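>> Question from a student workshop board

For tomorrow's exercise we were told to take the sequence and the ligand below, predict the bound structure, and bring the output to class. My setup keeps failing. Could a helper post the expected result so I can at least see what it should look like? The ligand is cytidine-5'-diphosphate.
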Amino acid sequence: MKKITVAIDGYSSCGKSTVAKDLAREVGYVYVDSGAMYRCVTLFCQQKNLITDGKVEEVKLRSLLPQVKIEFRKNAEGKADAYLNGENVESEIRSLKVSSQVSIVAALPFVREALVALQQEMGKAKGVVMDGRDIGTTVFPDAELKIFMTADPEVRAQRRYLELKEKGQEEPFEAILENVKQRDYIDEHREVSPLRKADDAVVLDNGNITREEQKEFILNLFKQRTGA
Ligand code: CDP
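>> Workshop helper replied:
Here is what the output should look like for this input. Compare the format with yours to find the bug.
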């Protein structure tokens, strides 16, 4: 069966990674979480104190960026954990502290250029499901299957609230909702590769459907595109 590229883009916390992981597992593709890469660069900035009052010290970050090594390694459960310079940062990069600054770091053109190149390298052999904001528009504009996901901000914030709580990182719901809305705004309004639906993407609003239903939906599209 021919291998294709699957691009899943959309708003923050709308379940892109759940859909992407479910599909990748089902069809034996590699899953790449591009957001984790922007989160790693943000954590690096925080470790080096490069962000003050919402502004990134760009000159310093640009010179230090070649030192940022991002990898995904499988853990005992077979899931890919993000590593920053050899350290497992999977849990830390999901914190509200990182979420609150990731969109300003992700808006920097030189950061995007470096990470897009890395993402293109990771997906060049096809057989990949990648989720993010600009996968169908910039990283893989020729992807055979593009999905654009959305859901109401309140629904998304509630999901993120429960996710963080389960990990023992409980934060006030209002703070999470505010973060979700703020990231949507920055992601949609930045100059380089803003979040937008690719013309040929299929919209999936998963506000009112189950995990199984969304998996079915995407699997059917996958079968159509691969001729399986
Ligand atoms: O999981 P969640 O929806 O909260 O976000 P994520 O996919 O982990 O992405 C975190 C942030 O990274 C987003 O809010 C964007 O600012 C940025 N991002 C991006 O600019 N481009 C991508 N391809 C992926 C993420």
